[in-house]
Each structure stands twice: as C-alpha cells, then as structure tokens.
Amino acid sequence: MEKALKLLSADIPLVEAQLLADLDSPVPLIRKVGEYVFASGGKRVRPLLLLLCARLCGYEGNRQIGLAGVVEFIHTATLLHDDVVDSAEVRRGNSSANTIWGNEASVLVGDFLFAKSFSIMVRAENLNILQILSDATTRMAEGEILQLISTADIDIEESRYLEVVRSKTAVLIAAACEVGGVLGAVSKQKQEALREFGLDLGLAFQLMDDALDYVADEQEFGKSRGQDLEEGKITLPLIHTLNRCTPEEHAAIAAVIEKDEPEEQDFAQVFGLIERHQGIEHTRERARSHVEAAKERLSMFPDSEVRQALFELADYVVTRRK
Questions:
Q1: Cα–Cα distances in Å, from 321 out to 100, 124, 216, 218, 270?
Q2: Are 21 and 65 in contact (CB under 8 A)?
Q3: Residue 5: phi, psi to the nearest 5?
Q4: Beta-carbon contacts of residue 19 (< 8 Å; ≥ 6 apart)
Q5: Are 143 and 173 a contacting pair, CB within 8 Å?
Q6: What pLDDT score does 223 carry?
Q7: Which of 110, 197, 242, 257 could anchor a disulfide with 77, C-beta 3.0 to 4.6 Å?
Q8: Residue 30's closest CA among 76, 71, 65, 86?
Q9: Is 95 helix (H, G, I), strand (E, B) or coil?
C-alpha cells in the first residue's frame, strides 16, 4: 500500500483527526470505547479507497475527509456488533471491546457510530451519497442476518456463501469507491465501474480473510487459527472441501461442527482435510481472480499514479498476512 499512503500523506492525518472529532459526546464511555477500537490497528482500507477514488475522478474539494470517516465508522460499528454476536474475545490481536466493557456497551457504542454516520453524511449535502451509503448499511445488516441463519449449515452452497460475503463485506467497500466517483462528478458509467471495482475487491478481501483464518499465525492475524470453524462459520475453504471429500470425511467434519467446544485434535482433523482437498489454494485462486477482475473495471480510467495506487492496493488484498 506504499503508493496509496504516499499519495494520501496529507489526507490520512485529517481523516484520523476527523474520526476522533466525530467521536465527541457528553457520554465519556462512547469516546473511551471508540478511541480504543480505532487505535487497535485497523488498516483503514475503506477510507483509503474512498480517498483514492475521489482523487482518481479529479475531485479537489474537502468533503472526502468526513466521508472517509463515515465508512470507517460504519465498518467499526459492524465489528463491535460482530464481536458480540460471535462472543469474540480478541479483535486485531487485542482484547475485544465487549471483553473489556461488556456486550451492552459494545452494542450501544456501535449504535452510536451508525447514528453518527448518518448525521455526518447529511453534511455532504448530497442525496446520492446518502442513498449509496444508507443502501449499503441496509445490505450489510441483511448480510449479518444471512450469516447468522447459515451458522453450522454444512450444506450451504457456494452461491449462498458468496451472497453473504457480498452483502456483509463487499457492499461497503463498493460504496466507498462509488462515493469517490460521485464526489468527482464523473459519468454514471464510471461510477458503476468504481462500484464494481469495489465489489470485486470486497469479495477478494473476505475470501482472503477466510483463507487466513485457517493458516495465518495468530500473532500476525489477530485472532486464533480456526476461529471461524469454532464459531460455526462455513466459509469457502470448508465449502470446497465438503464438496470434494468422501462421505466418511464429510461425516467427520459434520461431527466437529456439531460440537459445542471442539478439541485440538478436531481442529487438526479438519485442517488436514482442507489441506488434502486444496481448500486454501482454491479460495486464494478465487480471490486472485476477483482482484484481476477489479483491476479490469478501471480500464476506462487513464493510467495515472492514482490508478496504479489502486492496483497496488488491490494486489495487497491477496498478498497480506493479516
């Protein structure tokens, strides 16, 4: 991401300052929880994409700063809620907010961030942007519910899984990119290209997350290996394996999924089957194909430092280790 960070060296500190300013509240707990979460090492991919896409489209104003903060607020709100739903104890290598302050505080601070996001959106005085981001937020809530009702469903089809990923993760990344185009007042065709770029990139990002869950080092990735499996989340590495394994292997995986507290040997058994049936390789290849498709979406934009930075950011998605 070096190109992006260099190009946006003036904007990034402004976004960070705006995030803290927008946490302002007479309720001290809101700022305390918010500052803790924002300081915990997030990559700020969504704000970076919005800033880069706005610049790609020739925008020269300053509304991109507040809107970059909006997409990070929305993203952070979903993380706070996710950790409560998943009973997560760790987020990005640190204790999760719900572990420190409790589920009630995490949910309510997440609600504050959602509500504050819409207040900030109104400042942009652009109904199109408000529509894009509010639609994305609605889709994300639907994606969370789809994931919830798919928990421990070993018969989930790949198409259903991808629908969850598209709604839960990709739509906000797509919205961030499209908002950049709206700010730059480019044609509908170019706005659509940016949205599709974001959708493909968002799919790739989540696919890599799902692959890393099975292979990444806990200290690097920020959560324990196999946490998705422990939480009953059936992701692409496992779906691919279930579609190719023997009936006996399928039954063995099902038995592990049904356990309330799988043991170390259970995880090892499933990890071994995923490796045998190349579930990780398949998932990474799918992620790479989405990244290449994302790059192709930007073909209507002339080559530039900004477009190259977006390409580099896209490549980062499939090379990252956390």
A1: 27, 36, 7, 10, 21
A2: no
A3: -65, -35
A4: 38, 69, 72, 73
A5: no
A6: 61
A7: 110
A8: 76
A9: strand
In the three-class reduction of DSSP (H, G, I as helix; E, B as strand; rest coil), residue 94 is classed as strand
- At 280, list the tokens: 């990780």
Residue 291 has a CB neighbour count (10 Å cut-off) of 25
DSSP letter (8 states) at residue 87: T
Which residue segments constitute the domains of the chain, with CATH numbers given?
Answer: 2-208+292-316 (1.10.600.10)
Cα 90 to Cα 132, 218, 222, distances in angstroms: 31, 10, 7
3 state SS of 199: helix
- In 3-state terms, what secondary structure has residue 89? coil
To which residue do tokens 């990005």 refer?
92
Q: pLDDT per residue over 266-281, tens digit each?
A: 999 999 999 999 999 9
**Which regions in the chain score pLDDT beneath 70?**
217-224, 322
Give pLDDT tens digits for 35-53: 999 988 778 999 999 999 9
Indicate yes or no: pTM above 0.85: yes
Return the pLDDT at 225. Answer: 80
Question: Residue 90 forms beta bridges with which residues?
Answer: 95
Task: Output the CA torsion sign for 62, 63, 66, 69.
Answer: negative
Helix (H) or strand (E) holding 223: none
Q: How many CA atoms lie within 13 A of 82 on its CB side?
A: 19
Q: At what angle do helices 63-85 and 11-21 cross, to 10 degrees?
A: 60
Written as one letter, the residue type at 29 is L
- Residues 216 and 225: beta-carbon distance below 8 Å: yes
pLDDT in tens, 106-142: 999 999 999 999 999 988 889 999 999 999 999 999 9
Taking only Cα atoms into account, the Rg of the chain, rounded to an integer number of angstroms, comes to 20
